[in-house]
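User: Hello! My lab partner asked me to get a predicted holo structure for this protein. The small molecule is fe (ii) ion, SMILES included with the sequence. Please write out the structure tokens.
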Amino acid sequence: MKRMIALLIAFVLALSAAFFVNAATEDEISAKWDSITKNDSVISITPGADSTQMNFCWMSDLFSDDAFLYGMKPDLSDAEGAEIKKSLTAFFKKECNVTLEGLRENTTYYYRYYLGGLQSDIYSFTTDAKDEGFTALFVSDAQIGRSGDWQDDKVKLHDTTGWYTTLEQATENHPDISVCLSTGDQVQNATASVLYNLFLAPDTLRSLPIAVTPGNHEIGSPYLGHHFSNANEFENTVVPATIARPYYFTKGNALFIVLNTNNVFMLDHEALIAEAVETYPDAQWRVIMMHHGVYSCEDKDDDNPNNRNALVPMFEKYDIDLVLSGHSHMYSRTYVMKNFEKADEGIVYIEGGCASGSNCVLTPEELPDYAVVGNRIKSPVYTVLTFSEDEVGVEAYVVENGESVQIDETTIVRNERDDSNAQMSTGNKLLHFILSLPNRFFSLFY
Ligand SMILES: [Fe+2]
Ligand SMILES: [Fe+2]
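Assistant: Hello! Below are the structure tokens for the protein in complex with fe (ii) ion.
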């Protein structure tokens, strides 16, 4: 088995000998460089709490007039306005949030937004069917600005080109993708607004809802929270969320719970998971998204050494099926794991690699016992997850010279659900409530 893995790694490394460049896309991005780097007001679309909702978010000047119209006709001749919730930011801008509710299943809607007398193009999005399967794009560590000095335009252009190409390749080859799951480090430097402008620049992200996760590179600025409006944000943490709150949402037949693993206070994570599972107990699949992995193929687990011991039993208690993470910049997948060992039933852990090809060091010579696959590749990597009633199909790809080359494929089989222990103990519940009181009070004002 190890020989096969070594051959696979050698094959992929041979393919990736030349540093990734997609000249056509790079030229296209260069042509609009000024406008996309300066556009602080680019809109994001994020999953709603369920199939009947969708969220939108953008930043605008303090005194500009903002509006959001949506309808079912491509020219918006039937458009109606949506309520915009506005809040001040520390950047002399305001954050604008829209939540559309009561949307029909399997329906295409159109929208446009206005700011300061300017109107956007008309974009579209399509809702899915409640409780049914769907296809997701899983990415991590696009980390725009990581391949060198982030202030160098050539570095930003390289990483942005990789990110654009990943999105283009994934959605062209898998047109049924209806959500993008990003497990953190969207940008290299969280205080640099321009990096978020570039992360959000691909037009694909006007129609494809994206669920982002706070990474360690998002520390230091609340920009992440100002650019994305998330469903079911969890306010009642003990440790205040200075970047963006953790949250959860359902998509088709799956519940996604997004942790902020920069916070190492484990009761906060359990309180979030318990609330999510209690709110959506019938979702067929339970998926955790978090930045720091617990079964990394290198020493990255050491960043938060308590994570594996604390989080694995918690995930098993709440009958999680799949854990998606990043941080290592290495695509890896574990065997089915239970109680820290390989098992017939349990949880599969996948780390998404680097979606822009912005960073890579060598793959370790020997993989840990728990890893089926572990590849660090100097080109963009993405994974397609196909959720059906009893299985999730996993296909991972590396993008080379504008082509997608498969590097992993498997099927995850759903476990029998056992919720007999899926709740916080009374003592922990009480302790968490008391400790979170200061932040609950503080949350009333931000
Ligand atoms: Fe990271
Ligand atoms: Fe990273």
